[in-house]
Design a protein that fits this description.
Length: about 475
């Protein structure tokens, strides 16, 4: 009896046949997969190349930042690593940096906005603090486009998150009153779905609302912007350009303008061979800068920022309703920034001069010296009664509340309003230290108030009910 005719031999033969078929099928299956992956290999390589480029950009940013830190570190400072990447101790000036643990009991209370890359939520922390939580927008344009081309959710998330990582580094190194404060960060993917920046909470900038606000508040926004750009022109990281310079990149915090988006900032000035390489192109104006002996368009970042400030902010906020005696200085600022005739340092000096004149009241030196004689003053009193009129722009949309340097300026304003019969001054002041004056067309009665004084026009005082 042969081996093949035994039951064991028959079983062995069948087993070998099944094994052979299985090997052939597996080779065929994996061959198809290899062929399919081979077709996608260029796309995968592109994605990996982009990840490598972003990594190199962050690495260079770390190197630039660490060079500054090494020359400024104190004995209490330290350099540490997060997920294998360098970070720095004591770079955030908070008393206690917020991390993943503090976010465990967070409660989202408002949606502040979203863009191509990021989503921003207003969050209440367990200790009662409100912060802005900025994280990757998984439904944003950047993520959708990456998934459309590469179909790799894990690496697409890494690619899109690089902008937020870059922003966190910049917020750690660039600290200024007009840059939003980094309160902390979290990289716990389970808790927050990836890297998250924790920022001081501000309100999105509303240009229409700003246009309706008093000139003093609009000037404050422009002044804060100029101070910010002067800092960025010589920051610890070098000259910083805001490549995506739009009002949406800013928020308002307690009346102060603050930059909140830095992911498109550039800390390098363009290289050049000749002057024609240093060109700034805008819709209505082009500027050519000189190529320096070191083959760098030195100062081009500063010029870009300043002209964008002019066309997005100064044009709309600065000239309109400016105090008449300050208009010549405002016109000079508009002319110099619109033509890039002065540096950011010279522009800041001009703004500070306007502020000084406005705060000190020197622009009011030519007021009639005895204008307040037309008013009877009642100190320690406050007028009440709903007999107000509206003026624009007012600090109160339901009445006429304007800032004044003194009773003289308030008397001049009241005298220029036909419906004004009185005004009152309190100790409430604006950010410049100027007084707030309430102008009325009449009042029903007076009540004691040690912090207030009422001025009534004498020609109409007999008609008032005291």
């Amino acid at each position: 009896m042969t081996f093949s005719k035994t039951p064991f031999g028959l079983f062995f033969f069948l087993a070998m046949a099944v094994l052979s078929v299985t090997v052939v099928l597996k080779k065929w299956h994996f061959g198809l997969r290899e062929e399919a992956f081979g077709d996608d290999a260029p796309e995968r390589n592109r994605l990996l190349q982009q990840l490598q480029e972003r990594h190199q950009e962050l690495k260079q940013l770390y190197v630039t930042a660490s060079e500054f830190m090494n020359s400024h570190l104190s004995v209490n400072d330290s350099v540490y690593y997060i997920n294998g990447e360098m970070s720095a101790g004591n770079t955030v000036t908070n008393e206690t940096e917020i991390g993943c643990e503090e976010l465990a009991g967070m409660k989202a209370v408002d949606f502040l906005g979203s863009g191509y890359t990021k989503t921003v939520l207003k969050v209440a922390l367990p200790q009662g603090l409100f912060v802005a939580l900025k994280s990757v927008n998984h439904q944003g344009t950047d993520m959708r486009m990456c998934m459309q081309y590469f179909k790799d959710s894990q690496n697409c998330h890494k690619l899109v998150s690089f902008k937020l990582r870059k922003e966190i580094i910049l917020l750690q190194r660039l600290q200024h009153p007009n840059i939003v404060q980094l309160k902390g960060q979290c990289q716990d993917s389970v808790l927050v779905g990836g890297i998250t920046a924790i920022l001081e909470q501000g309100m999105p900038l509303q240009m229409i609302q700003l246009l309706q606000s008093p000139w003093e508040e609009r000037f404050r926004v422009c002044l804060g912007l100029v101070r910010l750009l002067q800092y960025l022109s010589q920051s610890p990281l070098g000259s910083v350009a805001l490549l995506d310079f739009q009002p949406r990149q800013f928020v308002m915090v307690s009346g102060e303008l603050k930059l909140t988006d830095l992911d498109d900032a550039s800390i390098k000035e363009p290289a050049c061979k000749e002057d024609s390489d240093c060109v700034l192109q805008f819709p209505l104006h082009n500027f050519t800068h000189r190529c320096s002996p070191s083959r760098i368009c030195k100062g081009l970042n500063e010029m870009r920022n300043l002209y964008n400030a002019y066309r997005y902010f100064f044009t709309y906020l600065l000239p309109h309703q400016a105090p008449p005696l300050l208009k010549p200085l405002i016109h000079q600022i508009m002319n110099s920034t619109g033509g890039l005739k002065q540096s950011i340092n010279e522009t800041l000096i001009a703004f500070e001069e306007v502020l000084h004149l406005y705060q000190s009241g020197q622009h009011l030196q030519n007021l009639p010296p005895f204008i307040t004689r037309d008013y009877a003053v009642l100190k320690g009193m406050r007028s009440v009664g709903n007999m107000e009129y509206r003026c624009w722009p007012s600090y109160n949309q339901q009445g006429c509340v304007l800032s004044v340097h003194s009773a003289k300026e308030a008397a001049l304003i009241c005298s220029s309003h036909p419906q004004c019969t009185s005004f009152s001054l309190s100790k409430e002041k604006t950010w410049t230290g100027r007084l707030l004056a309430l102008f009325r067309s009449g009042f029903s009665h007076l009540v004691p108030d040690v912090n207030s004084a009422v001025y009534m026009r004498k020609v109409k005082a007999s008609g008032a009910m005291l």
